[in-house]
Write a structure and sequence with these properties.
Elements: E1 2-7, E2 12-21, E3 24-34, H1 36-40, H2 47-69, E4 76-84, H3 88-105, E5 109-113, H4 114-120, E6 133-138, E7 143-150, E8 153-159, H5 165-175, H6 183-192, H7 216-228, H8 236-263, E9 269-273, H9 280-287, E10 293-295, H10 307-318
Parallel strand pairs: 1-4, 4-5, 6-9, 9-10
Antiparallel strand pairs: 1-2, 2-3, 6-7, 7-8
Helix pairs in contact: 2-3, 4-10, 5-6, 5-7, 5-8, 6-8, 8-9
This protein binds 5'-O-[(R)-(carboxyoxy)(hydroxy)phosphoryl]adenosine (KG4) and zinc ion.
5'-O-[(R)-(carboxyoxy)(hydroxy)phosphoryl]adenosine binds next to helix 5 and helix 6.
């Protein structure tokens, strides 16, 4: 069974063709077009520009995926599309395109929750992950720990109060002079200057008391440090040392919450997903946790992608779920607890 998946919730236009055979899911073809270059100069994603990019890129990517695979739209069993959360105009482009395809080729459609996609992204890389597991979702817009009991059965253990982990990385990167989104570049600088002992910079240990994830205090502390050491920070090594302190502080906060969650449950599997799960140091620290098996998405599936949307769409479709042609998109749609 072939499933075409579409993701347009933010600034990545992505299309993927998945094949399900005897319960096993493989990626036949996938294409991602990132809009980073378009938004970089504005210091963040400009929704209207993002929508326009999706509008011109999506049909090209879909045709490229189908052509490379040698399949025709008529061969599809399902079109899965991100229904939310995300930028409304962007979601509408994806949903409108999916509806058009389904109408033209008489295909069923299913709208998928983007965060649920991230929660299942590690399944694209392994057959060993089983329910239940704790999923640390760390992306540009979300930070949460979800106890995943089954597809569609979740318990939210901790949620973002203010900035998400990716935002914390990006804002710190911006203070260090990197263009948006600087998270990965800050991480690369930190890794290149990893100190043998501790960093010379001291940042507060955040989120020890709060119920959910909160990075706003850390952001203020970084801003103050950057101001205080403005001159020294012209030196690449000093910048690297501060980048390391930032990375350590964010990762440490994530690990603290994850360990708290593990201690209050008897779950022994942890998955990390979302853009920040590409972070090497975070992966190292999660892998080192005692008595816990760690799972991560492959490099292409940490960031927003269509394969994770296809995976969830396919599994829900197999349970008999369908969306109707009047499906609406949902800009704010937290993963619901059941
Ligand atoms: O999941 P994603 O592609 O988009 C959202 O759904 O939000 O995540 C993007 C986020 C950005 O904030 C980016 O800076 C961050 O992931 N990111 C990283 C790394 N690679 C991407 N943060 C830290 N270290 C990285 N290696
Ligand atoms: Zn995402």
């Amino acid at each position: 069974m072939y499933v075409l998946a579409i993701e347009t919730s933010c600034d990545e236009t992505a299309v993927s063709l998945l094949l399900e055979e005897n319960g096993k899911v493989t990626i036949v073809e996938e294409e991602i077009s990132s809009q980073t270059a378009v938004h970089e100069q504005y210091g963040g994603v400009v929704p209207e520009l993002a929508s326009r990019e999706h509008l011109s890129n999506l049909p090209l990517l879909a045709d490229a995926v189908m052509q490379k695979s040698g399949k025709r739209y008529q061969d599809l069993a399902l079109v899965a599309v991100t229904k939310g959360p995300g930028l409304k105009g962007c979601l509408l482009i994806g949903a409108g395109f999916a509806k058009g395809l389904c109408l033209a080729h008489t295909l069923p459609m299913l709208g998928v929750n983007h965060i649920e996609g991230h929660i299942f992204a590690p399944w694209l890389a392994t057959t060993e992950l089983k329910f239940p597991y704790l999923c640390l979702v760390v992306s540009g817009g979300h930070t949460e720990i979800v106890e995943v009991q089954d597809l569609g059965r979740y318990r939210i253990v901790a949620r973002t109060i203010d900035d998400a982990a990716g935002e914390a990385f990006d804002k710190a990167a911006n203070l260090l002079g990197f263009a948006y989104p600087g998270g990965a570049r800050l991480a690369a600088l930190a890794d290149a200057h990893r100190p043998s002992g501790k960093s010379h910079f001291r940042l507060p240990r955040v989120m020890r008391e709060s119920q959910g994830f909160s990075f706003s205090g850390l952001k203020t502390a970084i801003a103050l440090l950057v101001k205080k050491h403005e001159r020294e920070l012209a030196d690449e090594k000093v910048r690297g040392d501060l980048a390391w302190a930032v990375q350590e502080s964010i990762v440490d906060a994530l690990l603290f919450k994850l360990q708290q969650a593990l201690a209050s449950s008897n779950i022994t599997q942890v998955a990390v997903s979302g853009g920040v799960s590409a972070n090497r140091y975070l992966r190292e620290r999660v892998t080192e946790l005692h008595g816990v098996k760690a799972f991560f998405p492959g490099a292409r599936h940490c960031m927003d992608n269509a394969s994770m949307i296809g995976y969830v769409g396919l599994r829900r479709f197999q349970r008999g779920e369908r969306s109707t042609p009047d499906m609406d998109v949902i800009a704010r749609w937290p993963v619901e607890e059941i």
